Amino acid sequence: MTAAERREQITAGIVARTGITEAMIEQLVHAFYAKVRKDPMIGPVFETRISNWEPHLAQMCAFWSSVALMTGRYHGTPMVKHMPLPIDAAHFDRWLELFEATAAELCPPDAAAHFIDRARRIASSLEMGVASGQGVMLAVDERYRRSEAGAVQ
Fold this sequence. Notes:
Globin-like_sf; Preprotein translocase subunit TatC; heme binding; Globin/Proto
């Protein structure tokens, strides 16, 4: 079996278990980022960095296709993009809150659970990367917090 055939087999298994489709991913991504853009905490982080939302949304659809369905459509470097951002645990918590609510609203339970599980892993990984980028090594279950002056608490 080739790598491409193996990937297709894995994707088909996920689709069979969860019902996730590319159309569902697109609906989830667009609805989620509509909430993000209006959010007083995380909206400004995005708005100062994204001037043209259509390419970003297309990239996020490819990202979630790769994450949720193992399609391999995304070829970016999310850690590198997130490390310099002025964000901490509170931002990741809010991102997850909005994502989880959107997934629960739009997706069948098995699909929502699949998306949410992956979102939690992504948030944890990115939070550790952001902390590391600021010279902070987090202990197990430790969260990254910036003080108002920009230092870590």
